[in-house]
Amino acid sequence: MIVIYTNELENSIELYSELGHVFILGDLNGRTGTLVDFLENDDIHFTLKNRICGAFEYLADSVLPKRVNPDLNTNSYGSKIISMCKSSGLRIVNGRHKNGFSNDFTYCGPIGMSVLDYFIVPSFYFPNINQLIVSNFTTYSDHAFLHLELNLLNTMRNPGKCSDAMEDTERRVKYKWKDEFKEQCTECIRINMDNIIRLQNRINFENQNSFDKSLSNFTCMIEDIMSPFFKTMPYVNNKPYKPVNYFDKPWFNTRCKELYRCYIDYLHVFNRSKSIVNHTNLTCAKREYKSYGTSS
Hints:
Layout lengths: L1 H16 L6 E4 L18 H6 L24 H13 L1 E3 L14 E2 L4 E2 L2 E6 L6 E6 L11 E5 L8 H14 L1 E2 L6 H10 L1 H9 L6 H23 E2 L21 H19 L3 H20 L1
Antiparallel strand pairs: 1-5, 2-5, 3-4, 6-7, 8-9
Helix pairs in contact: 1-3, 8-9
């Protein structure tokens, strides 16, 4: 199974590399611990380099920062991922991105927590990654969402059409509060507090234009901080509105609602602090709620 898994992945990398640069994102089922995903001490010694200068071009492997991984264990899939990274030139972004929001568990199962979901890119694309956030866990999946924000060049083939589409998109942008991102957003504000205060102190009250510009800069900074967590693109439905009445299923009784509320409360506690105790409490609450719903 591991051979098939890695061969298919490496074959896909080789195939799509002919079309452009390859990014890998998703659940790879591999635990990589603190294994190094690039070739260490790969540079040619300067004495040898002087002798063979001009004979051929050799590009040493880039030395990257150490990955901060909360999951220190490894498995066979993880070793294969590391080998794939070394052979393909792709590098793991998890645990290396600024602000530390990528240094978290991505899977929470009944047995324990681990890092199984990755964002893997060529190392020279690291400066183009504005954000990589391992989001909080939700009731929808055992895996946490990976939030990405990339800075890429867009070559428009039809500038007029794309411009209209972008303007329409900007008009439809909304911000929706999501309680599961509260702690991460608070931490992001705390990290950027010095920049916020610095910008606040630079507000110019001399005239209206100066004040408007200062206020715009301040608003843009707050928007950059909040957007990764709360920016949404609502679906625009032009069909006439038809009211829909929702009713609870017969099995979703008072006891089931209590178990669900308890499950949600433990989920919030776990997202704030991913300790063994909180994980155990969450697993028990989830199992009890699921078991009750199945038996009803």
